[in-house]
Amino acid sequence: MAQPIFPINSIWMIAREYGELAGAGGVKDVAMQLSVALSRGGRSVSVVLPMYGTIDPERLGFIRIGLDFDLDMSYPQEERREFVSIWCRKEEVDIYLIDSPRFREKSGIYTYTALDERHNPLHRQGEGHYDYFAMNVLHQKAALCLLIQLGIRPDIIHCHDGHTALLPALAREQDGFCHYFKETGFVVTIHNAGLGYHQEVHDLPFAQAVTGLPARVITANVLNGAFDPFLAAAHYAEMNTVSENYARELRETVDDAMTGWLGHQLLARGLALQGITNGIDPAEFNPMDYQRLGLPVGFQLAGGGQGGEGNGIGETSIGLSGKVQCRKELCDAVAAKSLSGIRQSGSLDFLPDQPLVTFIGRFSTQKGVDIMIDALKYLLPSDDDFQILILGSGQKEIEDALVALASDHRYKGRVCLLRGFDPSLANWVYAAGDFFLVPSRYEPCGLTDFIAQLFGNLPIVHYVGGLVKVVDGETGFAFHQHSGLALMEAMQHAFAVYRSSRGAVVAMQQKAVALIHAQYTWDKVKARYLDLYHQALERQLRG
Protein backbone atom coordinates (compact mmCIF):
# COMPACT_ATOMS: atom_id res chain seq x y z
CA MET A 1 0.00 0.00 0.00
CA ALA A 2 1.34 3.42 -0.95
CA GLN A 3 2.22 5.65 1.99
CA PRO A 4 0.15 8.86 2.36
CA ILE A 5 1.82 11.94 0.96
CA PHE A 6 1.35 13.70 4.30
CA PRO A 7 1.98 11.33 7.24
CA ILE A 8 0.18 11.91 10.52
CA ASN A 9 2.53 11.80 13.51
CA SER A 10 1.27 14.45 15.95
CA ILE A 11 -2.39 14.78 17.01
CA TRP A 12 -3.89 17.11 19.61
CA MET A 13 -7.41 16.55 20.95
CA ILE A 14 -9.41 19.52 22.24
CA ALA A 15 -12.38 18.42 24.34
CA ARG A 16 -14.46 19.35 27.37
CA GLU A 17 -14.50 15.70 28.56
CA TYR A 18 -11.93 12.93 28.86
CA GLY A 19 -12.30 9.54 30.53
CA GLU A 20 -12.76 9.63 34.29
CA LEU A 21 -11.07 13.02 34.59
CA ALA A 22 -14.13 14.87 33.33
CA GLY A 23 -17.18 13.07 32.02
CA ALA A 24 -20.80 13.83 31.29
CA GLY A 25 -21.57 11.71 28.24
CA GLY A 26 -20.11 9.71 25.41
CA VAL A 27 -17.54 12.36 24.51
CA LYS A 28 -15.40 11.29 27.47
CA ASP A 29 -15.16 7.74 26.15
CA VAL A 30 -14.52 8.67 22.52
CA ALA A 31 -11.88 11.28 23.36
CA MET A 32 -10.00 8.90 25.62
CA GLN A 33 -10.31 5.64 23.71
CA LEU A 34 -9.54 7.15 20.29
CA SER A 35 -6.53 8.97 21.79
CA VAL A 36 -5.20 5.78 23.34
CA ALA A 37 -5.73 3.77 20.14
CA LEU A 38 -3.86 6.38 18.08
CA SER A 39 -1.05 6.54 20.62
CA ARG A 40 -0.63 2.77 20.57
CA GLY A 41 -0.06 3.09 16.84
CA GLY A 42 3.14 5.05 17.57
CA ARG A 43 1.76 8.58 17.20
CA SER A 44 2.21 11.45 19.63
CA VAL A 45 -1.22 12.30 21.08
CA SER A 46 -2.09 15.06 23.55
CA VAL A 47 -5.37 16.29 25.04
CA VAL A 48 -6.33 19.77 26.31
CA LEU A 49 -9.10 20.04 28.92
CA PRO A 50 -10.43 22.73 31.24
CA MET A 51 -9.56 22.20 34.89
CA TYR A 52 -12.99 22.07 36.51
CA GLY A 53 -13.49 22.56 40.22
CA THR A 54 -13.98 18.81 40.65
CA ILE A 55 -10.43 18.05 39.43
CA ASP A 56 -7.68 17.85 42.06
CA PRO A 57 -4.61 18.10 39.81
CA GLU A 58 -1.91 17.25 42.36
CA ARG A 59 -3.75 14.18 43.64
CA LEU A 60 -4.12 13.01 40.02
CA GLY A 61 -0.44 13.37 39.24
CA PHE A 62 -0.46 16.68 37.34
CA ILE A 63 2.28 19.26 37.77
CA ARG A 64 2.46 22.93 36.88
CA ILE A 65 4.74 23.41 33.89
CA GLY A 66 5.49 27.10 34.39
CA LEU A 67 3.31 28.38 31.58
CA ASP A 68 1.02 31.26 32.60
CA PHE A 69 -0.45 33.79 30.24
CA ASP A 70 -3.27 36.27 29.66
CA LEU A 71 -5.82 35.90 26.87
CA ASP A 72 -7.94 38.50 25.14
CA MET A 73 -11.55 37.92 26.29
CA SER A 74 -13.05 41.31 25.50
CA TYR A 75 -16.77 42.02 25.71
CA PRO A 76 -18.50 44.69 23.58
CA GLN A 77 -17.27 48.12 24.69
CA GLU A 78 -15.08 46.45 27.36
CA GLU A 79 -11.51 45.34 26.83
CA ARG A 80 -10.81 42.33 29.04
CA ARG A 81 -8.03 39.84 29.69
CA GLU A 82 -8.26 36.53 31.53
CA PHE A 83 -5.37 34.70 33.15
CA VAL A 84 -4.70 30.98 32.74
CA SER A 85 -2.00 28.60 33.93
CA ILE A 86 -1.17 25.11 32.69
CA TRP A 87 -0.92 21.74 34.39
CA CYS A 88 0.36 18.61 32.64
CA ARG A 89 0.53 14.86 33.16
CA LYS A 90 2.86 12.97 30.83
CA GLU A 91 1.84 9.42 30.02
CA GLU A 92 0.75 7.31 27.04
CA VAL A 93 -1.45 10.27 26.11
CA ASP A 94 -0.22 13.60 27.47
CA ILE A 95 -2.96 15.61 29.16
CA TYR A 96 -2.91 19.39 29.66
CA LEU A 97 -5.31 21.21 31.99
CA ILE A 98 -6.27 24.86 31.51
CA ASP A 99 -6.50 26.40 34.98
CA SER A 100 -8.74 29.46 35.18
CA PRO A 101 -11.16 30.90 37.77
CA ARG A 102 -13.89 30.55 35.11
CA PHE A 103 -13.40 26.77 35.14
CA ARG A 104 -12.50 26.26 38.80
CA GLU A 105 -15.83 27.67 40.00
CA LYS A 106 -17.80 25.02 38.06
CA SER A 107 -18.75 21.79 39.85
CA GLY A 108 -20.45 20.42 36.73
CA ILE A 109 -19.01 20.19 33.25
CA TYR A 110 -21.91 21.63 31.28
CA THR A 111 -24.68 22.36 33.77
CA TYR A 112 -25.23 23.57 37.30
CA THR A 113 -25.46 20.93 40.00
CA ALA A 114 -27.63 20.69 43.11
CA LEU A 115 -24.64 22.04 45.05
CA ASP A 116 -24.46 25.07 42.75
CA GLU A 117 -28.17 25.71 43.25
CA ARG A 118 -27.79 25.60 47.04
CA HIS A 119 -25.01 28.19 46.82
CA ASN A 120 -26.90 30.37 44.33
CA PRO A 121 -30.64 29.80 43.71
CA LEU A 122 -30.28 31.49 40.29
CA HIS A 123 -28.04 28.62 39.18
CA ARG A 124 -30.76 25.98 38.79
CA GLN A 125 -29.74 22.36 38.75
CA GLY A 126 -29.61 20.97 35.20
CA GLU A 127 -29.43 24.37 33.49
CA GLY A 128 -26.41 25.27 31.38
CA HIS A 129 -23.75 27.64 32.67
CA TYR A 130 -24.63 31.26 32.01
CA ASP A 131 -21.13 31.91 30.60
CA TYR A 132 -20.97 28.76 28.43
CA PHE A 133 -19.84 30.60 25.30
CA ALA A 134 -17.05 32.49 27.08
CA MET A 135 -15.92 29.21 28.71
CA ASN A 136 -15.67 27.59 25.29
CA VAL A 137 -13.77 30.50 23.76
CA LEU A 138 -11.32 30.66 26.67
CA HIS A 139 -10.63 26.93 26.36
CA GLN A 140 -10.00 27.12 22.61
CA LYS A 141 -7.84 30.25 22.69
CA ALA A 142 -5.83 28.80 25.55
CA ALA A 143 -5.24 25.57 23.60
CA LEU A 144 -3.87 27.45 20.59
CA CYS A 145 -1.68 29.69 22.74
CA LEU A 146 -0.41 26.67 24.67
CA LEU A 147 0.79 25.07 21.43
CA ILE A 148 2.61 28.26 20.45
CA GLN A 149 4.20 28.52 23.90
CA LEU A 150 5.38 24.92 23.62
CA GLY A 151 6.64 25.44 20.07
CA ILE A 152 4.52 22.54 18.77
CA ARG A 153 2.86 22.50 15.35
CA PRO A 154 0.61 19.41 15.29
CA ASP A 155 -0.25 17.64 12.07
CA ILE A 156 -3.87 17.50 13.23
CA ILE A 157 -5.98 19.28 15.82
CA HIS A 158 -9.14 17.25 16.47
CA CYS A 159 -11.98 19.27 18.04
CA HIS A 160 -14.81 17.48 19.82
CA ASP A 161 -18.36 18.87 19.61
CA GLY A 162 -19.70 22.43 19.53
CA HIS A 163 -17.72 23.41 22.62
CA THR A 164 -14.49 23.35 20.59
CA ALA A 165 -15.78 23.79 17.02
CA LEU A 166 -14.69 27.44 16.80
CA LEU A 167 -11.02 26.57 17.07
CA PRO A 168 -10.42 26.03 13.32
CA ALA A 169 -11.94 29.43 12.54
CA LEU A 170 -9.79 31.08 15.22
CA ALA A 171 -6.67 29.39 13.86
CA ARG A 172 -7.39 30.35 10.28
CA GLU A 173 -8.74 33.88 10.70
CA GLN A 174 -6.59 35.54 13.38
CA ASP A 175 -3.16 36.93 12.59
CA GLY A 176 -1.65 35.56 15.77
CA PHE A 177 -2.56 32.01 14.78
CA CYS A 178 -2.99 31.66 11.02
CA HIS A 179 0.69 31.67 10.07
CA TYR A 180 1.77 29.44 12.92
CA PHE A 181 -0.81 26.75 12.12
CA LYS A 182 -0.61 27.00 8.33
CA GLU A 183 0.55 23.36 8.07
CA THR A 184 -1.95 21.94 10.56
CA GLY A 185 -5.15 20.19 9.52
CA PHE A 186 -8.36 20.44 11.51
CA VAL A 187 -11.13 17.94 12.18
CA VAL A 188 -14.38 18.67 14.02
CA THR A 189 -16.49 15.79 15.29
CA ILE A 190 -20.16 16.47 15.97
CA HIS A 191 -21.09 14.22 18.85
CA ASN A 192 -24.57 15.74 19.15
CA ALA A 193 -26.16 18.16 16.68
CA GLY A 194 -29.45 18.45 18.55
CA LEU A 195 -30.98 21.77 19.50
CA GLY A 196 -29.20 23.06 22.58
CA TYR A 197 -25.93 21.33 21.73
CA HIS A 198 -24.52 23.71 19.12
CA GLN A 199 -23.09 26.16 21.68
CA GLU A 200 -24.58 28.92 19.55
CA VAL A 201 -24.94 32.51 20.73
CA HIS A 202 -27.66 34.95 19.70
CA ASP A 203 -25.77 38.08 20.78
CA LEU A 204 -23.74 38.63 17.60
CA PRO A 205 -21.76 41.67 18.86
CA PHE A 206 -20.76 39.61 21.92
CA ALA A 207 -19.73 36.69 19.69
CA GLN A 208 -17.53 38.96 17.59
CA ALA A 209 -15.98 40.72 20.57
CA VAL A 210 -15.10 37.66 22.67
CA THR A 211 -13.87 35.51 19.76
CA GLY A 212 -12.07 38.31 17.93
CA LEU A 213 -13.32 36.85 14.63
CA PRO A 214 -14.07 39.20 11.72
CA ALA A 215 -17.65 40.40 11.39
CA ARG A 216 -17.95 38.62 8.03
CA VAL A 217 -17.31 35.25 9.73
CA ILE A 218 -19.92 35.92 12.39
CA THR A 219 -22.65 37.12 10.02
CA ALA A 220 -22.00 34.42 7.41
CA ASN A 221 -22.55 31.62 9.92
CA VAL A 222 -25.87 32.45 11.51
CA LEU A 223 -28.39 29.62 11.91
CA ASN A 224 -31.87 30.39 13.22
CA GLY A 225 -30.76 33.85 14.34
CA ALA A 226 -27.65 32.74 16.25
CA PHE A 227 -23.96 32.45 15.42
CA ASP A 228 -23.38 28.71 15.10
CA PRO A 229 -19.93 27.18 15.76
CA PHE A 230 -20.70 24.03 13.75
CA LEU A 231 -21.67 26.05 10.70
CA ALA A 232 -18.52 28.17 11.03
CA ALA A 233 -16.27 25.13 11.45
CA ALA A 234 -17.28 23.54 8.16
CA HIS A 235 -15.42 26.20 6.16
CA TYR A 236 -12.08 25.44 7.82
CA ALA A 237 -12.14 21.77 8.84
CA GLU A 238 -13.15 18.30 7.81
CA MET A 239 -16.32 17.42 9.69
CA ASN A 240 -17.84 14.16 10.76
CA THR A 241 -20.49 12.89 13.08
CA VAL A 242 -20.39 9.73 15.12
CA SER A 243 -22.32 7.28 12.97
CA GLU A 244 -23.06 6.86 9.31
CA ASN A 245 -26.80 6.72 9.93
CA TYR A 246 -26.83 9.93 11.97
CA ALA A 247 -24.96 11.74 9.18
CA ARG A 248 -27.58 10.44 6.75
CA GLU A 249 -30.48 11.52 8.99
CA LEU A 250 -29.07 15.05 9.25
CA ARG A 251 -28.74 15.49 5.51
CA GLU A 252 -31.60 13.42 4.09
CA THR A 253 -34.50 13.25 6.58
CA VAL A 254 -36.91 15.47 8.47
CA ASP A 255 -35.21 14.37 11.70
CA ASP A 256 -32.80 17.19 10.91
CA ALA A 257 -35.50 19.50 12.27
CA MET A 258 -34.22 18.48 15.71
CA THR A 259 -30.91 20.20 14.85
CA GLY A 260 -32.51 23.40 13.55
CA TRP A 261 -31.76 22.07 10.02
CA LEU A 262 -28.00 22.20 10.44
CA GLY A 263 -27.45 19.19 8.20
CA HIS A 264 -29.55 20.60 5.39
CA GLN A 265 -27.78 23.95 5.67
CA LEU A 266 -24.41 22.23 5.32
CA LEU A 267 -25.73 20.31 2.32
CA ALA A 268 -27.06 23.50 0.70
CA ARG A 269 -23.62 25.10 1.07
CA GLY A 270 -21.91 22.09 -0.48
CA LEU A 271 -20.07 21.32 2.77
CA ALA A 272 -19.28 17.69 3.53
CA LEU A 273 -20.39 15.82 6.64
CA GLN A 274 -19.06 12.31 6.99
CA GLY A 275 -20.17 9.57 9.38
CA ILE A 276 -17.82 7.38 11.40
CA THR A 277 -19.48 5.09 13.94
CA ASN A 278 -17.76 5.26 17.30
CA GLY A 279 -15.67 2.35 18.45
CA ILE A 280 -15.04 0.93 21.88
CA ASP A 281 -12.14 -0.79 23.61
CA PRO A 282 -13.67 -4.07 24.87
CA ALA A 283 -10.82 -4.54 27.35
CA GLU A 284 -12.01 -1.44 29.19
CA PHE A 285 -15.30 -3.21 29.97
CA ASN A 286 -14.27 -6.84 30.31
CA PRO A 287 -16.14 -8.21 33.35
CA MET A 288 -13.30 -10.68 33.95
CA ASP A 289 -11.25 -7.63 35.04
CA TYR A 290 -13.68 -7.19 37.92
CA GLN A 291 -11.43 -5.55 40.51
CA ARG A 292 -10.47 -2.65 38.22
CA LEU A 293 -14.11 -2.19 37.23
CA GLY A 294 -15.33 -2.17 40.83
CA LEU A 295 -17.33 -5.41 40.56
CA PRO A 296 -17.60 -7.90 43.42
CA VAL A 297 -16.85 -10.87 41.14
CA GLY A 298 -15.84 -11.45 37.55
CA PHE A 299 -17.61 -13.40 34.86
CA GLN A 300 -17.23 -14.37 31.24
CA LEU A 301 -19.85 -14.62 28.53
CA ALA A 302 -18.84 -17.89 26.91
CA GLY A 303 -18.07 -17.60 23.21
CA GLY A 304 -18.35 -13.82 23.30
CA GLY A 305 -14.76 -12.97 22.47
CA GLN A 306 -13.68 -12.21 26.06
CA GLY A 307 -10.79 -14.58 26.23
CA GLY A 308 -12.09 -18.03 25.33
CA GLU A 309 -14.40 -20.06 23.18
CA GLY A 310 -17.64 -21.26 24.76
CA ASN A 311 -17.97 -25.04 24.65
CA GLY A 312 -20.91 -26.07 26.71
CA ILE A 313 -23.41 -25.57 29.47
CA GLY A 314 -20.85 -25.62 32.26
CA GLU A 315 -18.91 -22.64 30.93
CA THR A 316 -22.12 -20.71 30.22
CA SER A 317 -23.38 -21.28 33.76
CA ILE A 318 -20.18 -19.72 35.13
CA GLY A 319 -21.00 -16.55 33.25
CA LEU A 320 -24.57 -16.53 34.49
CA SER A 321 -23.56 -17.21 38.09
CA GLY A 322 -21.16 -14.26 38.00
CA LYS A 323 -23.91 -11.93 36.85
CA VAL A 324 -26.23 -13.29 39.50
CA GLN A 325 -23.64 -12.68 42.20
CA CYS A 326 -23.12 -9.09 40.98
CA ARG A 327 -26.87 -8.60 41.18
CA LYS A 328 -27.14 -10.07 44.68
CA GLU A 329 -24.39 -7.89 46.11
CA LEU A 330 -25.81 -4.78 44.44
CA CYS A 331 -29.21 -5.55 45.98
CA ASP A 332 -27.48 -5.94 49.35
CA ALA A 333 -25.76 -2.55 48.92
CA VAL A 334 -29.08 -0.94 47.99
CA ALA A 335 -30.78 -2.54 51.01
CA ALA A 336 -28.01 -1.24 53.29
CA LYS A 337 -28.12 2.17 51.60
CA SER A 338 -24.33 2.06 51.52
CA LEU A 339 -23.73 3.63 48.11
CA SER A 340 -21.64 6.70 48.92
CA GLY A 341 -22.59 9.98 47.25
CA ILE A 342 -25.80 8.54 45.81
CA ARG A 343 -29.33 9.63 46.66
CA GLN A 344 -31.58 6.56 46.73
CA SER A 345 -35.33 6.25 46.27
CA GLY A 346 -37.18 2.95 46.29
CA SER A 347 -35.66 -0.48 46.89
CA LEU A 348 -34.54 -3.60 45.06
CA ASP A 349 -35.19 -7.10 46.35
CA PHE A 350 -32.97 -9.93 45.18
CA LEU A 351 -35.20 -11.81 42.73
CA PRO A 352 -32.81 -13.65 40.39
CA ASP A 353 -35.56 -15.40 38.44
CA GLN A 354 -37.05 -12.10 37.29
CA PRO A 355 -35.54 -9.94 34.53
CA LEU A 356 -33.77 -6.86 35.83
CA VAL A 357 -34.15 -3.84 33.53
CA THR A 358 -31.56 -1.08 33.87
CA PHE A 359 -31.04 2.50 32.71
CA ILE A 360 -27.93 4.66 33.09
CA GLY A 361 -27.81 8.18 31.74
CA ARG A 362 -28.95 11.76 31.79
CA PHE A 363 -32.55 12.37 32.77
CA SER A 364 -33.82 14.31 29.76
CA THR A 365 -36.37 14.06 26.98
CA GLN A 366 -33.54 13.63 24.45
CA LYS A 367 -32.56 10.45 26.28
CA GLY A 368 -36.20 9.34 26.18
CA VAL A 369 -36.68 9.25 29.94
CA ASP A 370 -40.16 10.74 29.49
CA ILE A 371 -41.35 7.78 27.40
CA MET A 372 -39.56 5.39 29.76
CA ILE A 373 -41.68 6.76 32.59
CA ASP A 374 -44.82 6.42 30.45
CA ALA A 375 -43.99 2.79 29.62
CA LEU A 376 -43.28 1.91 33.25
CA LYS A 377 -46.53 3.47 34.46
CA TYR A 378 -48.43 1.00 32.28
CA LEU A 379 -46.13 -2.00 32.56
CA LEU A 380 -45.39 -2.09 36.30
CA PRO A 381 -49.03 -2.63 37.41
CA SER A 382 -49.73 -5.14 34.63
CA ASP A 383 -46.61 -7.31 35.01
CA ASP A 384 -45.43 -8.18 38.52
CA ASP A 385 -42.44 -10.23 37.39
CA PHE A 386 -39.71 -7.75 36.51
CA GLN A 387 -37.62 -5.10 38.28
CA ILE A 388 -36.00 -1.86 37.16
CA LEU A 389 -32.90 -0.04 38.42
CA ILE A 390 -32.20 3.52 37.24
CA LEU A 391 -28.93 5.45 37.70
CA GLY A 392 -28.26 9.04 36.68
CA SER A 393 -29.28 12.65 37.13
CA GLY A 394 -30.72 15.49 35.10
CA GLN A 395 -33.73 17.73 34.76
CA LYS A 396 -35.44 18.32 38.09
CA GLU A 397 -38.96 17.72 36.75
CA ILE A 398 -37.95 14.31 35.38
CA GLU A 399 -36.07 13.43 38.57
CA ASP A 400 -39.20 14.27 40.58
CA ALA A 401 -41.32 11.98 38.38
CA LEU A 402 -38.82 9.14 38.82
CA VAL A 403 -38.72 9.67 42.59
CA ALA A 404 -42.52 9.44 42.68
CA LEU A 405 -42.45 6.18 40.71
CA ALA A 406 -39.73 4.63 42.88
CA SER A 407 -41.50 5.71 46.08
CA ASP A 408 -44.85 4.17 45.11
CA HIS A 409 -45.57 1.55 47.79
CA ARG A 410 -47.11 -0.76 45.16
CA TYR A 411 -43.65 -1.28 43.63
CA LYS A 412 -41.63 -1.80 46.81
CA GLY A 413 -38.62 -3.97 46.05
CA ARG A 414 -39.15 -3.64 42.29
CA VAL A 415 -38.18 -0.06 41.43
CA CYS A 416 -35.01 1.66 42.58
CA LEU A 417 -33.72 5.09 41.59
CA LEU A 418 -30.10 6.04 42.25
CA ARG A 419 -29.46 9.74 41.67
CA GLY A 420 -25.87 10.67 41.01
CA PHE A 421 -23.07 8.95 39.19
CA ASP A 422 -20.00 6.87 39.94
CA PRO A 423 -18.12 4.91 37.24
CA SER A 424 -17.71 1.79 39.39
CA LEU A 425 -21.37 1.85 40.35
CA ALA A 426 -22.31 2.21 36.69
CA ASN A 427 -20.24 -0.87 35.87
CA TRP A 428 -22.00 -2.71 38.68
CA VAL A 429 -25.42 -1.80 37.29
CA TYR A 430 -24.39 -2.88 33.80
CA ALA A 431 -23.13 -6.20 35.16
CA ALA A 432 -26.22 -6.88 37.27
CA GLY A 433 -28.79 -6.15 34.59
CA ASP A 434 -30.44 -8.37 32.01
CA PHE A 435 -31.86 -5.62 29.78
CA PHE A 436 -30.66 -2.06 29.26
CA LEU A 437 -32.99 0.70 28.09
CA VAL A 438 -31.79 3.22 25.47
CA PRO A 439 -35.06 4.98 24.53
CA SER A 440 -33.41 8.13 23.14
CA ARG A 441 -35.50 10.44 20.99
CA TYR A 442 -32.39 10.71 18.82
CA GLU A 443 -28.93 9.28 19.37
CA PRO A 444 -25.95 10.23 17.20
CA CYS A 445 -24.12 7.00 18.07
CA GLY A 446 -24.60 5.63 21.55
CA LEU A 447 -21.90 3.92 23.57
CA THR A 448 -24.03 2.68 26.44
CA ASP A 449 -25.50 -0.02 24.20
CA PHE A 450 -21.96 -1.27 23.50
CA ILE A 451 -20.99 -1.17 27.18
CA ALA A 452 -24.17 -2.96 28.23
CA GLN A 453 -23.57 -5.70 25.66
CA LEU A 454 -20.04 -6.28 26.93
CA PHE A 455 -21.54 -6.92 30.37
CA GLY A 456 -24.20 -9.30 29.01
CA ASN A 457 -26.95 -6.69 29.40
CA LEU A 458 -29.05 -6.74 26.23
CA PRO A 459 -30.04 -3.25 24.98
CA ILE A 460 -33.62 -2.27 24.16
CA VAL A 461 -33.21 0.72 21.83
CA HIS A 462 -35.12 3.23 19.79
CA TYR A 463 -34.08 2.33 16.24
CA VAL A 464 -32.57 5.68 15.32
CA GLY A 465 -29.17 7.25 14.63
CA GLY A 466 -26.25 5.10 15.70
CA LEU A 467 -28.51 2.75 17.65
CA VAL A 468 -29.28 0.90 14.42
CA LYS A 469 -26.14 -1.11 15.15
CA VAL A 470 -28.29 -3.10 17.59
CA VAL A 471 -29.80 -5.96 15.57
CA ASP A 472 -33.37 -6.60 16.70
CA GLY A 473 -33.80 -10.10 18.06
CA GLU A 474 -30.12 -10.95 17.57
CA THR A 475 -27.96 -8.58 19.63
CA GLY A 476 -30.76 -6.75 21.45
CA PHE A 477 -34.25 -5.42 20.85
CA ALA A 478 -35.46 -2.37 18.92
CA PHE A 479 -38.62 -0.29 18.54
CA HIS A 480 -39.32 2.20 15.76
CA GLN A 481 -41.97 4.64 17.01
CA HIS A 482 -40.76 6.92 19.77
CA SER A 483 -43.54 6.41 22.27
CA GLY A 484 -44.13 4.83 25.65
CA LEU A 485 -46.39 2.24 24.03
CA ALA A 486 -43.73 1.14 21.53
CA LEU A 487 -41.10 0.94 24.27
CA MET A 488 -43.45 -1.09 26.45
CA GLU A 489 -44.10 -3.55 23.62
CA ALA A 490 -40.34 -3.96 23.04
CA MET A 491 -39.85 -4.64 26.75
CA GLN A 492 -42.65 -7.21 26.68
CA HIS A 493 -40.97 -8.90 23.70
CA ALA A 494 -37.67 -9.04 25.62
CA PHE A 495 -39.40 -10.47 28.70
CA ALA A 496 -41.11 -13.14 26.58
CA VAL A 497 -37.74 -14.30 25.21
CA TYR A 498 -36.24 -14.29 28.71
CA ARG A 499 -39.08 -16.33 30.18
CA SER A 500 -39.34 -18.84 27.37
CA SER A 501 -35.64 -19.54 26.71
CA ARG A 502 -32.69 -18.48 28.82
CA GLY A 503 -30.53 -20.20 26.21
CA ALA A 504 -31.76 -17.75 23.58
CA VAL A 505 -30.77 -14.86 25.85
CA VAL A 506 -27.29 -16.30 26.34
CA ALA A 507 -26.89 -16.76 22.58
CA MET A 508 -27.85 -13.12 22.02
CA GLN A 509 -25.37 -12.00 24.68
CA GLN A 510 -22.58 -13.92 23.00
CA LYS A 511 -23.44 -12.70 19.50
CA ALA A 512 -23.52 -9.07 20.66
CA VAL A 513 -20.04 -9.29 22.17
CA ALA A 514 -18.66 -11.14 19.14
CA LEU A 515 -20.00 -8.43 16.80
CA ILE A 516 -18.30 -5.69 18.80
CA HIS A 517 -14.97 -7.50 18.56
CA ALA A 518 -15.44 -8.08 14.84
CA GLN A 519 -16.50 -4.57 13.76
CA TYR A 520 -16.37 -1.91 16.44
CA THR A 521 -13.03 -1.92 18.25
CA TRP A 522 -11.07 1.34 18.12
CA ASP A 523 -8.23 -0.44 16.37
CA LYS A 524 -10.62 -0.87 13.44
CA VAL A 525 -12.44 2.47 13.71
CA LYS A 526 -9.27 4.56 14.11
CA ALA A 527 -8.31 3.70 10.51
CA ARG A 528 -11.30 5.74 9.31
CA TYR A 529 -10.24 8.67 11.48
CA LEU A 530 -6.74 8.49 10.05
CA ASP A 531 -8.26 8.71 6.57
CA LEU A 532 -10.17 11.80 7.71
CA TYR A 533 -7.00 13.29 9.19
CA HIS A 534 -5.19 12.80 5.88
CA GLN A 535 -8.05 14.55 4.07
CA ALA A 536 -7.83 17.47 6.50
CA LEU A 537 -4.07 17.81 6.17
CA GLU A 538 -4.08 17.50 2.40
CA ARG A 539 -6.88 20.07 2.21
CA GLN A 540 -4.72 22.53 4.12
CA LEU A 541 -1.35 21.87 2.51
CA ARG A 542 -2.76 21.86 -1.01
CA GLY A 543 -4.88 24.92 -0.35
Note the beta-strand portion. 15-25%
Helix content: 25-40%
Main sheet record: 9 strands, mixed
Give the distance, in angstroms, between the N- and C-terminal Cα atoms. Answer: 25 Å
Any low-confidence stretches, pLDDT <50, length ≥5? Answer: 307-318
How would you briefly describe this protein structure?
By secondary structure, the chain is an alpha/beta fold.
What does this structure look like?
- By secondary structure, the chain is an alpha/beta fold.
- It has 20 helices and 18 strands.
- Helix 10 packs across helix 11, helix 13 packs across helix 16 and helix 14 packs across helix 18.
Descriptive key words:
single chain, 543 residues, alpha/beta, nine-stranded mixed sheet, 20 helices, 17% strand, globular
Secondary structure layout:
Layout: E1 10-14, H1 26-40, E2 44-50, E3 63-72, E4 81-89, E5 94-99, H2 101-104, H3 114-119, H4 132-150, E6 156-160, H5 167-173, H6 175-178, E7 185-190, H7 204-211, H8 215-220, E8 222-223, E9 226-227, H9 229-233, E10 238-241, H10 244-252, H11 262-268, E11 274-275, H12 290-293, H13 313-336, E12 343-346, E13 356-363, H14 369-382, E14 387-394, H15 396-407, E15 415-419, H16 423-432, E16 435-438, H17 448-454, E17 458-462, E18 477-479, H18 484-500, H19 502-519, H20 522-541
Parallel strand pairs: 1-2, 1-6, 2-5, 6-7, 7-10, 10-11, 13-14, 13-16, 14-15, 16-17, 17-18
Antiparallel strand pairs: 3-4, 4-5, 8-9, 12-15
Helix pairs in contact: 10-11, 13-16, 14-15, 14-18
